UniProtKB/TrEMBL annotation, chain A:
Taxonomic lineage: Eukaryota, Metazoa, Chordata, Craniata, Vertebrata
GO cellular component, one term: cytoplasm
Pfam families documented for this protein: IQ (PF00612)
Lineage: superkingdom: Eukaryota
InterPro entries: ASPM (IPR051185), IQ_motif_EF-hand-BS (IPR000048), P-loop_NTPase (IPR027417)
PROSITE patterns to which the protein is assigned, alphabetical: IQ
Localization per Swiss-Prot or TrEMBL: Cytoplasm
Stored Gene3D superfamilies: 1.20.5.190
Alphabetized UniProt keyword annotations: Calmodulin-binding, Coiled coil, Cytoplasm, Repeat
Sections of the chain in a coiled coil: 117-164
Organism: Heterocephalus glaber
GO terms under biological process: establishment of meiotic spindle localization; mitotic cell cycle; spindle organization
GO molecular function: calmodulin binding
Protein's recorded name: Spermatogenesis-associated protein 17
Automatic annotation (TrEMBL), chain B:
Protein name (record): Sperm-associated antigen 6
Higher taxonomy: Eukaryota, Metazoa, Chordata, Craniata, Vertebrata
GO molecular function, one term: microtubule binding
Source species of the chain: Heterocephalus glaber (Naked mole rat)
A biological-process GO annotation: sperm axoneme assembly
General function of this protein: Important for structural integrity of the central apparatus in the sperm tail and for flagellar motility.
Classification via InterPro entries: ARM-like (IPR011989), ARM-type_fold (IPR016024), Armadillo (IPR000225), HEAT (IPR000357)
Assigned keywords, A-Z: Cell projection, Cilium, Cilium biogenesis/degradation, Cytoplasm, Cytoskeleton, Flagellum, Microtubule, Repeat
Main location: other
Pfam families: Arm, HEAT
Oligomer status and interactors: Interacts with SPAG16 and SPAG17.
UniProt-annotated location(s): Cell projection, Cilium, Flagellum; Cytoplasm, Cytoskeleton, Cilium axoneme
SUPFAM superfamilies: ARM repeat
């Protein structure tokens, strides 16, 4: 109880002290709290940082291993590739070497033979040489032939000239102009003139006149050679203006068969072909080609010798011709011989056309 | 008595007509009279005389018309317009040989001028009549008819086809076999005119058996006939390989070469043309020509003549060389190159030079050996290319030849002059050759420096990244760096700039052009002119 009393006695003091103490505590509470928070934050910060640092270190270790693993793997691959390419390059180089040799061998063996090529070129040049030689020879031959021809021509011309100038030849009495007495030797022309044959004066051929005469014109207009005028159809087949005949009529007229007169229809040398034909017939009918001679007249086989008096080398025809023809050949119209024909009686062929039986004009 | 008087009147009229026609025909021989004659309407006066009763007058009228039409296209047109052709054609079948000759002469004179006139002849049905004339007995008539047919078919393929359709070819082939030289000549000419247009027409001529007869006549002594025959064969051979082979099979080969030695220029030319037409088709045919010694004789032929006659020979060498390297080598050993270079430098005409340049290009483009054979012509080619007087075609051909030869040329001393005078487009190829050869040839490298080539290369200004710059770099890489650096590059550049400045101010150009990239070609052109 005493304690209680003591306590009660002291309760006032205690109360004051309690209050005082609490107030003191209250006065420092905030500051202390702040300090505690600060201390705690610092500590916790340190703790977290330490932890993160720890984590980092762990992560780096993991990454290091992982990355090492990866790059080791990659490097291996790279090395493999490099090795492979190196190997392939080497192989390729070797293959090229082999191919080079082989191809060279093959080309030399089969495609391009150097010696053959050389030989070919040599052959070509030889061929060229021979061709050149041959052509040269050919050209020379041509040239010499031409020269020869030229010389011959000149010689001929000179000979011709010599023949023309033959009258300049010297005679026994008079020396010619090429044989001057003051010269030691005669001119070469003199010798040439001696050799040359004198030119015979040629008979002048009379040219027929270019311009055809009336007779020719009439001959041309005859139906035998040329169509008459107006026989050509007009170029554009329009009927012509004017009093012209129908074209068919004209054409009919133009292509009318030939109606020769009695005289023209009959050949003038009728006898000759008839005789020839008769002879031919006789020859065909013959059994033997040998001439038949009777046995009794064997001695008559020898050739008939005409009498010297009755025969002449001048045949009668030429003899007679001379008589008919003018002596002066300049007046001849044509070179042919005259044909001996009886003159026709022109009057009779016109019977029925220009005159009647009674002699009247139609 | 009265009959005689009548006849005398007729006779006088006839004489007057004859005199008129003869006079006109005589006057028509002189060109100065023709205008007057035409304006006087002589054609309409001559037309009725074609129908005259007297054959002499008909013939002379035809002759006069032919001479008129022969002179010019206008007169020929007037003859066509005057409706004379049908008349001629009508009487061509009926009259005597003199008239036929004269009528064929008129047709020829009309048809030779232009395709339209020839078409007029075809239209009036003259071809059939002419073909009938080819069957005539008289060689003169045949000749005139063949000539008229040839003149008609000369112009184009349709007209030739018309002549062929009229059945002229077999008769022309028969005409070739006639003994008369003139007829042979004209028939060969007509065949050549027919066959020149198309392979089909040539085939028709070949089918008629012309080649054998033509080939027989190559040795004929008559020069004109030879010319016509060779040109006919050439015209046949030019179309296709088959036709060329058929011509070759007629065994023309050693024989044709004799024609190259002929005196006549035309014979030479046509023989060269024939060989060219054969050689151009295939390597085999060229080989055949080479084996027959054709190249050597053509080379000699080129040497023996001048001017245009050379042209086919030059082209023949080019064609042969173009086929393969062996053939090109055959041309080289046949001494073709000296002749070609002579042609290139001596010929006055540009087209012959162009052909020679082309042929040289064909020879030199195969291998380095070939190029070595033609290197001595490169400066001539370059000068022709650079010359302003040469024609465009010649420049083109020269350029192509140079571009063909340079990539094969490994003989550097010949290339070095090109560094100094060549334009950039050729310089590129030259430097390319140097850059290819120098890395492998130490002696050439040394020579290149001592001759000053390397220095010149340093002076060349090339756009960075261009092909030219690449070549320059690869040339520089062949040498140690010091050698390249010692060369006075910088100095040269400075000098150039000064020169450009002077150039620009002299021409009154503003200085700001200096920085303009457009001044670069100016500089080049200036340099190029200076270099000349």
């Amino acid at each position: 109880m005493a304690t209680l009393a003591r306590l009660q006695a002291r309760s006032r003091f205690l109360e004051n002290q309690y209050y005082f103490r609490n107030s003191v505590v209250d006065a420092f509470r905030k500051k202390e709290n702040c300090a505690a928070v600060k201390i705690q934050s610092w500590f916790r910060g340190c703790q977290v940082r330490a932890y993160i640092r720890h984590l980092h270190r762990i992560a780096i270790i993991i990454q290091k291993w992982w990355r090492g693993y990866l790059s080791r793997k990659h490097y291996q691959l790279k090395v493999e590739v490099a090795y492979y390419t190196m190997k392939m390059e080497l192989y390729n180089a070797m293959a090229v070497r082999i191919q080079r040799r082989w191809r060279a061998y093959k080309v030399r063996k089969y495609c391009f033979n150097y010696f053959y090529y050389k030989q070919y070129l040599r052959a070509v040049s030889e061929a060229n040489e021979t061709v050149r030689e041959i052509l040269q020879e050919y050209a020379e031959i041509q040239e010499s032939e031409e020269k020869k021809a030229e010389l011959e021509r000149e010689e001929k011309q000179r000979a011709e000239e010599a023949r023309k100038m033959h009258y300049l030849l010297s005679t026994k009495q008079i020396p010619g102009i090429y044989n001057s007495p003051f010269r030691k030797e005669p001119d070469p022309w003199e010798l040439r003139l001696q050799r040359a044959k004198p030119l015979v004066p040629q008979r002048r051929r009379v040219q027929q006149k270019q311009c055809a005469g009336l007779a020719d014109w009439l001959a041309c207009t005859s139906a035998r050679s040329f169509p008459r005028s107006g026989s050509l159809p007009p170029i554009n087949r329009k009927p012509c203006q004017g009093p012209f005949r129908n074209i068919n009529e004209v054409l009919e007229q133009r292509y009318k068969p030939l109606e020769p007169t009695l005289r023209v229809a009959q050949p003038i040398d009728e006898l000759t072909p008839a005789r020839q034909e008769f002879q031919g017939q006789e020859w065909v009918r013959n059994i033997s080609d040998k001439m038949f001679l009777p046995f009794s007249s064997h001695h008559k086989k020898e050739k008939y010798m005409p009498s010297l008096f009755s025969s002449s080398k001048y045949d009668p025809i030429s003899c007679r011709k001379q008589g008919f023809r003018s002596e002066n050949p300049g007046k001849w119209i044509c070179d042919k011989d005259f044909q001996t024909v009886f003159p026709s009686v022109d009057l009779f062929s016109k019977y029925g056309k220009s005159y009647s039986r009674a002699g009247q004009i139609v | 008595m009265s009959q005689r008087q009548v006849l005398q009147g007729l006779e006088e009229y006839r004489k007057a007509r004859l005199q008129f026609v003869q006079r006109v025909a005589e006057q028509a021989t002189r060109p100065q009279n023709l205008e007057t004659l035409q304006s006087a309407g002589v054609i309409s006066l001559l037309r009725p005389l074609l129908l005259d009763v007297v054959p002499t007058i008909q013939q002379t009228a035809a002759l006069a018309l032919g001479r008129l039409a022969n002179y010019s296209d206008d007169l020929a047109e007037a003859v066509v317009k005057g409706d004379i052709l049908p008349q001629l054609v009508y009487s061509l079948a009926e009259q005597n040989r003199f008239y036929k000759k004269a009528a064929a002469f008129v047709l020829r004179a009309v048809g030779k001028h232009s395709p339209q006139r020839a078409q007029a002849i075809v239209d009036c049905g003259a071809l059939d009549a002419l073909v009938i004339c080819l069957e005539d007995f008289d060689p003169g008539v045949k000749e005139a008819a063949a000539w008229a047919l040839g003149c008609t078919s000369r112009h184009n393929a349709e007209l030739s086809q018309a002549v062929v359709d009229a059945g002229a070819v077999p008769l022309l082939v028969l005409c070739i076999q006639e003994p008369e030289i003139a007829l042979k000549r004209i028939a060969a000419l007509a065949l050549s005119d027919i066959s020149k247009h198309s392979p089909e027409l040539a085939q028709t001529v070949v089918d008629a058996g012309a080649i054998a007869h033509l080939a027989q006549m190559i040795l004929n002594p008559d020069a004109k006939l030879k010319h016509q025959v060779l040109s006919a064969l050439g015209q046949i051979a030019k179309h296709s390989v088959d036709l060329a082979e058929m011509v070759v099979e007629a065994e023309i080969f050693p024989v044709v070469l004799t024609c190259l030695k002929d005196k006549d220029e035309y014979v030479k030319k046509s023989a060269c043309t024939l060989i060219r037409e054969i050689a151009k088709h295939t390597p085999e045919l060229s080989q055949l020509v080479v084996n027959a010694g054709g190249v050597a004789s053509v080379t000699d032929c080129i040497g023996s003549c001048r001017g245009n006659t050379r042209l086919p020979g030059i082209m023949m060498l080019g064609y042969v060389a173009a086929h393969s390297e062996n053939l090109a080598m055959a041309v080289i050993i046949s001494k073709g190159v000296p002749q070609l270079s002579v042609c290139l430098s001596e010929e006055p005409e540009d087209h012959v030079k162009a052909a020679a340049a082309w042929a040289l290009g064909q020879i030199g483009r195969h291998t380095s050996e070939h190029a070595r054979a033609v290197t001595h012509t490169l400066p001539v080619l370059l000068s022709l290319y650079m010359s302003t007087e040469s024609s465009e075609d010649l420049q083109m051909k020269c350029k192509k030849a140079i571009k063909g030869i340079l990539p094969k040329c490994t003989y550097l001393p010949a290339l070095e002059p090109f560094l100094y005078g060549a334009p950039p487009n050729i310089l590129k190829h030259v430097l390319g050759q140097f850059s290819k050869v120098l890395p492998h040839d130490s002696k050439a490298r040394r020579l290149f420096v001592t001759s000053g080539g390397l220095k010149k290369v340093q002076e060349i200004q090339a756009d960075p990244g261009s092909l030219l710059q690449e070549y320059i770099n690869s040339i520089n890489n062949c040498y140690p760096e010091e050698v390249v650096r010692v060369l006075p590059k910088e100095f040269e550049v400075e000098r150039r700039r000064k020169r450009l400045l002077f150039f620009l101010t002299a021409h009154g150009t503003h200085l700001s052009f200096m920085s303009n990239p457009q001044c670069l070609p100016l500089l080049r052109s200036r340099e190029a002119t200076e270099a000349q």
